[in-house]
Amino acid sequence: MTSQNQPLSGNGSSERPLADRIRPQKLSKFIGQVHLVGPGKPVRLAIEKKQIHSMIFWGPPGSGKTTLARIIASEIGGKFHHLSAVSAGKDDIRNIVRSVKSSAQQQLNIKHLPRRQAGQTSNISKKNIVFLDEIHRFNKAQQDYLLPFVEDGTIVLIGATTENPSFEVIPPLMSRCQVFVLNELSEKELARIVTSGAKELRLKVPKNAQDFLIRFSNGDARQILNLLEVTARLYRRITVENLKNALQAKFLRYDQAGEEHYNTISSFIKSMRASNIDAALYYLARMVDAGEDPLFIARRMVIFASEDIGMAQPTALVVANEVFRACETIGYPECAINLAHGVVYLATAKKDRSAYEAYFRAVDDVKKHGNLPIPLNLRNPVTKLMKNLGYGRGYEKYSREDLLPEKLKGKKYFRK
């Protein structure tokens, strides 16, 4: 152990974030999730048997989703492709698939080479693991695009999400992936991570500072390591006072391009959904204080008005749109008041997701059945021939007749 005043390591690796530098490379070094990686548990067995299928890791931030995915690829000798659904799109998937298929073609060609030369290039056939972080941020069309490549084994998909995949991942993709739930790390597990981080930084962490780090983290290992690293860089010594001072740095508390940005907006929406006015105002205040774009906040409120309030109080959409308009025309600092006004209104409104859920039930049938023939009585008889064929025949305004295509007669999407 070096002196507390000695500078941090000056090698190139120190430029990488601490969380990345101490990320375990082997399953034996992985901390937590014993129900998945302990002896005889499903993920460990899959790795040991090298029978990796597409899966989704659902768990809180900092619980080891990315690390576990990397370990899986490493342990089976696979090729690891890391994408974030925040910034990635179809083109990124397309490029990976093109690369995989090109490698597969090379593998076929290798069969025609002399045995010695073929052996030198045999690593081409590695399994291709596509890790898609925050998979819930891929829209339905993007998720649909993944389906055929997951289904035919071109790629092994490992999706990571902090949101319930039952609501955020399309059913066809869910049916092709096994969902594993990762738990929040325990205090003992977090203490091991503090020790590992301190060892890398070559610093001592007193017991009271370790306890502070664990309480601050809310089970998130990345939060611990970020705060530990920033404190070490600013103050060299790890004390409770120095940790608290480091917390005042806004870049640590709220990064508009990072995970805390999404954690905060998620908490904001969920608080309004729960009609918890005080929590919703608190998360609004955090975003405003951090300089979040007011139009980003207002845009989410417009979506919320239709998605979560809907038919219970249709005027909520009018209010949300007016808040958005006010933010456009007024801007900060005054538009923060408009946002607060709208948040209180939306949080206190009754909630009804029936229209939102009905629409996606209809979307599922469209995807399942394609363009079913429209009933003749609903078709527009533009020409005489069309009229003779029965277009528009029997149609009555305000009819209570089932107007769905024949194959869907009796379906009820909207349920009160």
TrEMBL record:
GO terms for biological process: DNA synthesis involved in DNA repair; DNA-templated DNA replication. The keyword ATP-binding applies. It holds the Pfam family AAA_assoc_2. Keywords: ATP-binding, DNA replication, Nucleotide-binding. Residues 51-185 form the AAA+ ATPase domain. GO terms for molecular function: ATP binding; ATP hydrolysis activity; DNA binding; enzyme activator activity; single-stranded DNA helicase activity. It comes from the Bacteria. The keyword Endoplasmic reticulum does not apply. DNA-dependent ATPase that plays important roles in cellular responses to stalled DNA replication processes. Belongs to the AAA ATPase family. RarA/MGS1/WRNIP1 subfamily. This is AAA family ATPase. It comes from Candidatus Chisholmbacteria bacterium RIFCSPHIGHO2_01_FULL_52_32. The lineage of its organism: Bacteria, Candidatus Chisholmiibacteriota.
